[in-house]
Amino acid sequence: MNETQYAEEFYFEPFIRGNDGRVEELVRQDIREGMSAADVVSRRLIATMEIVGRKFQNAEIFVPEMMIAARSMSTVLAKIKDQISGESSEGQGLVCIGTVKGDLHDIGKNLVITMLEGHGFRVIDLGVSASADKFVKAVQDENPDIVAMSALLTTTMSEMVVVLNALGKEGLRDRVKVIIGGAPVTQAYAAQIGADGYAADAPGAVNLCRTIMRPAL
Ligand code: B1M
Hints:
Elements: H1 3-17, H2 20-32, H3 37-57, H4 63-79, H5 81-84, E1 93-99, H6 107-118, E2 121-125, H7 132-142, E3 146-150, H8 159-169, E4 177-181, H9 187-193, E5 197-198, H10 202-213
Parallel strand pairs: 1-2, 1-3, 3-4, 4-5
Helix pairs in contact: 1-2, 1-3, 1-4, 3-4, 6-10, 7-8
């Protein structure tokens, strides 16, 4: 049985039924059998969310099940947060992160936050559906090193451009590095809109932020 089949066979049902106890049991079993918490996240939890997304697309499940699955994922992530966050090293820099306006998906963003904090970054969470004004105000008030934006919908990706333009208009664009991520976002899109970087996943976001804070000599 491959990993997608395993996730579908064991994790999918408890996820969409909101059976958090069963999900936790499965996670504990995987960890007992030697899987790292980071692998549980990518090979089990994210794999299950991909199945949820696929089944939603095929109209086999609907928004309520997707919401219950999201809640299950958030619950279990909170439980294993300490194990996935990695080694802490203080004072890496300040990151302001938000999911862009019109977009309510926050699981990926929260995972990025967990991993950044675990690696010594201070993070200010601007939440979901964060407007360009909110990003601008955060840069003015908090003076972060990095602004990170997340988008999960093809229809909200363009909000990233709105934020970049708003930062430019306020004369803030040179004060901060802007990085982007989320399922429909790509490196090419980052280059196209003039963002400073793109990361495909949470560990990638940590690496990107580290590189930004310590550029090669
Ligand atoms: Co929605 N949804 N959803 N959804 N949802 C998707 C995204 C979708 C692909 C499902 C599908 O059709 N296959 C689809 C988007 C299609 C598209 O635009 N191409 C979709 C849709 C259509 C919708 C609605 C429009 C449905 C409706 O109402 N008819 C609606 C929109 C609401 C809105 O936002 N305005 C909607 C609603 C919802 C729920 C609220 C029910 C729920 C979200 C709850 C929540 O987040 N609290 C939900 C969910 C759960 C999903 C899926 C199933 C799972 C998303 C997820 O959490 N994945 C998703 C299908 C899928 O992704 N396969 C889907 C796990 C998470 C860990 O991964 O968020 O990709 P991800 O984060 C990754 C990377 O992308 C990266 O790191 C993370 C992993 O390490 N990353 C970053 C993320 N942000 C980053 C920022 C960075 C760097 C990396 O900064 C530098």
